[in-house]
Amino acid sequence: MKIGLLTSGGDCPGLNAVIRGAVLNGIISHDDEFVGFRNGWRGVVEADFEEIVRHDVRGLSKQGGTILGSSRTNPFEGEGGGPENIQRMLDDNGIDAIIAIGGEGTLTAARRLVDEGGINVVGVPKTIDNDLAATDYSFGFDTAVQIATEAIDRLRTTADSHGRCMVVEVMGRHVGWIALHSGMAGGAHAILIPEQPKTIDEICEWVESVVDRGRAPLVVVAEGFTLEGMSEAHSHKGLDAFGRPRLGGIGELLAPMIEERTGIESRETVLGHIQRGGAPSAFDRVLATRLGMAAVSAVHDQAWGQMVSLRGTDIEVVSLQEATGALNHVPASRYDEAKILFG
């Protein structure tokens, strides 16, 4: 078979390991051919692709980013967009199937292409936010947590030196997994996540409790967190290609509010895209490689409209509908567990 690979949406550590796992399994086990679409769905819409051979993936699992490039292109838009045009492009170039590696937006688009046009697509879940349902963990998450934890460790020393309250904003559009894990690992005194709106008074109580014990407060907040009374997450950066608000900046709102109410000097740090960069962790390299290999097996099983996922320690195949129909929210029990450590 001739299989097209694409990486779409926000990049994350582990994408190259997926590509390597898929190509090696396809060539060794099935004598497949591979092409890589450049810059995600944009490469599909514009018929922009390159051949990938075994030599191209040598040593790739430890490399961050993606050799194929990425974008947030909507495959239903543009002159070459839509299932009819995409199928014609695939037929003209002898491409039998697409493995789409991406997050919520990418896999939702993949599902539509299957449902509305019968395109042969298999999905691989990619999101540092860990917000996709139907998989216990997605690759990139472990690395993002490690990066955030290292930043928290560094901010703690400067906070202690000046007796400041540090507000650390991490990624997490609709879910608080990065904030929860990095906050617990870094010993945060408060963790604020989208699933659990809080009042500024509650936050200030935790901050003042820390100061009363002679410590410098450290607050970790997910970018999608909302204070009680806010109708939506803070956004001032417009919309992405899928019509979703580009979030960020809640830390810049919280730090001045904390300082005004408590009199404690407060500073915010937005980690932003640093969480997406660098080499993947060992866990993410292994998970990504396994998912890439499983995706090729799913293609040969003609599991169109399906996604490979991690369940426990096993790789399984689930429907894209199940994966994109709901978000993987942080359960209240997990937050209550962490809340014991606040203040």
UniProtKB/TrEMBL annotation:
<keyword id="KW-0418">Kinase</keyword>
<protein>
    <recommendedName>
        <fullName>ATP-dependent 6-phosphofructokinase</fullName>
        <ecNumber>2.7.1.11</ecNumber>
    </recommendedName>
</protein>
<feature type="binding site" description="in other chain">
    <location>
        <begin position="171"/>
        <end position="173"/>
    </location>
    <ligand>
        <name>substrate</name>
    </ligand>
</feature>
<dbReference type="GO" id="GO:0030388">
    <property type="term" value="P:fructose 1,6-bisphosphate metabolic process"/>
</dbReference>
<dbReference type="GO" id="GO:0005945">
    <property type="term" value="C:6-phosphofructokinase complex"/>
</dbReference>
<dbReference type="GO" id="GO:0048029">
    <property type="term" value="F:monosaccharide binding"/>
</dbReference>
<keyword id="KW-0808">Transferase</keyword>
<feature type="binding site" description="in other chain">
    <location>
        <position position="223"/>
    </location>
    <ligand>
        <name>substrate</name>
    </ligand>
</feature>
<feature type="site" description="Important for substrate specificity; cannot use PPi as phosphoryl donor">
    <location>
        <position position="105"/>
    </location>
</feature>
<dbReference type="GO" id="GO:0006002">
    <property type="term" value="P:fructose 6-phosphate metabolic process"/>
</dbReference>
<dbReference type="InterPro" id="IPR022953">
    <property type="entry name" value="ATP_PFK"/>
</dbReference>
<dbReference type="InterPro" id="IPR000023">
    <property type="entry name" value="Phosphofructokinase_dom"/>
</dbReference>
<comment type="similarity">
    <text>Belongs to the phosphofructokinase type A (PFKA) family. Mixed-substrate PFK group III subfamily.</text>
</comment>
<keyword id="KW-0479">Metal-binding</keyword>
<comment type="pathway">
    <text>Carbohydrate degradation; glycolysis; D-glyceraldehyde 3-phosphate and glycerone phosphate from D-glucose: step 3/4.</text>
</comment>
<dbReference type="InterPro" id="IPR012829">
    <property type="entry name" value="Phosphofructokinase_III"/>
</dbReference>
<feature type="binding site">
    <location>
        <position position="267"/>
    </location>
    <ligand>
        <name>substrate</name>
    </ligand>
</feature>
<dbReference type="InterPro" id="IPR015912">
    <property type="entry name" value="Phosphofructokinase_CS"/>
</dbReference>
<dbReference type="GO" id="GO:0070095">
    <property type="term" value="F:fructose-6-phosphate binding"/>
</dbReference>
<dbReference type="GO" id="GO:0061621">
    <property type="term" value="P:canonical glycolysis"/>
</dbReference>
<feature type="binding site">
    <location>
        <begin position="72"/>
        <end position="73"/>
    </location>
    <ligand>
        <name>ATP</name>
    </ligand>
</feature>
<keyword id="KW-0963">Cytoplasm</keyword>
<keyword id="KW-0460">Magnesium</keyword>
<feature type="binding site">
    <location>
        <position position="164"/>
    </location>
    <ligand>
        <name>substrate</name>
    </ligand>
</feature>
<dbReference type="GO" id="GO:0003872">
    <property type="term" value="F:6-phosphofructokinase activity"/>
</dbReference>
<comment type="function">
    <text>Catalyzes the phosphorylation of D-fructose 6-phosphate to fructose 1,6-bisphosphate by ATP, the first committing step of glycolysis.</text>
</comment>
<dbReference type="GO" id="GO:0016208">
    <property type="term" value="F:AMP binding"/>
</dbReference>
<dbReference type="InterPro" id="IPR012003">
    <property type="entry name" value="ATP_PFK_prok-type"/>
</dbReference>
<feature type="active site" description="Proton acceptor">
    <location>
        <position position="129"/>
    </location>
</feature>
<keyword id="KW-0547">Nucleotide-binding</keyword>
<dbReference type="GO" id="GO:0047334">
    <property type="term" value="F:diphosphate-fructose-6-phosphate 1-phosphotransferase activity"/>
</dbReference>
<dbReference type="Pfam" id="PF00365">
    <property type="entry name" value="PFK"/>
</dbReference>
<feature type="binding site">
    <location>
        <position position="10"/>
    </location>
    <ligand>
        <name>ATP</name>
    </ligand>
</feature>
<dbReference type="GO" id="GO:0005524">
    <property type="term" value="F:ATP binding"/>
</dbReference>
<feature type="domain" description="Phosphofructokinase">
    <location>
        <begin position="2"/>
        <end position="298"/>
    </location>
</feature>
<feature type="binding site">
    <location>
        <position position="104"/>
    </location>
    <ligand>
        <name>Mg(2+)</name>
    </ligand>
</feature>
<dbReference type="InterPro" id="IPR035966">
    <property type="entry name" value="PKF_sf"/>
</dbReference>
<keyword id="KW-0324">Glycolysis</keyword>
<keyword id="KW-0067">ATP-binding</keyword>
<feature type="binding site">
    <location>
        <begin position="103"/>
        <end position="106"/>
    </location>
    <ligand>
        <name>ATP</name>
    </ligand>
</feature>
<dbReference type="GO" id="GO:0046872">
    <property type="term" value="F:metal ion binding"/>
</dbReference>
<feature type="binding site" description="in other chain">
    <location>
        <begin position="273"/>
        <end position="276"/>
    </location>
    <ligand>
        <name>substrate</name>
    </ligand>
</feature>
